[in-house]
Design brief:
Helix content is 41%, strand content 18%. It is α+β, with helices and mostly antiparallel strands and 96 residues long. The protein has a domain of 43 residues: YefM-like fold (3-Layer(aba) Sandwich). Strands 1-2-3 form a 3-stranded mixed beta sheet. β2 and β3 form a beta hairpin.
């Protein structure tokens, strides 16, 4: 069975892609994928970026499926050390 994204993939010529670029981008935003062909060869894939984020319910399901973790008495100091060395360059993806 084909993946959902594969069933939404369409081939277009490079000429058509250049002439209707804005329209193609609008469709990519809605989840459609395009393979651009030039001189009979596939040369480019236009698709939405891969989403590596999880919903809160997916995170909870993963956590519930794991083995129980016992925290030792150094947990707080270990966590403080990790946070102190963590780069703030890549902050949260949400607006503050």
């Amino acid at each position: 069975m084909a993946k959902k994204s594969e069933s939404r993939t369409r081939r277009v010529s490079a000429t058509k892609a250049s002439r209707s670029f804005a329209s193609i981008l609008d469709q990519v935003v809605r989840g459609r994928r395009f393979v651009v062909r030039r001189r009979g060869r596939d040369v480019c894939l236009m698709s939405p970026p891969e989403n590596d984020r999880r919903t809160a319910s997916e995170c909870l399901a993963l956590l519930r499926g794991r083995a129980r973790v016992e925290l030792d008495d150094r947990f707080g100091s270990d966590l403080a050390e990790i946070l102190a060395t963590e780069s703030s360059e890549h902050g949260p993806s949400w607006d503050s």
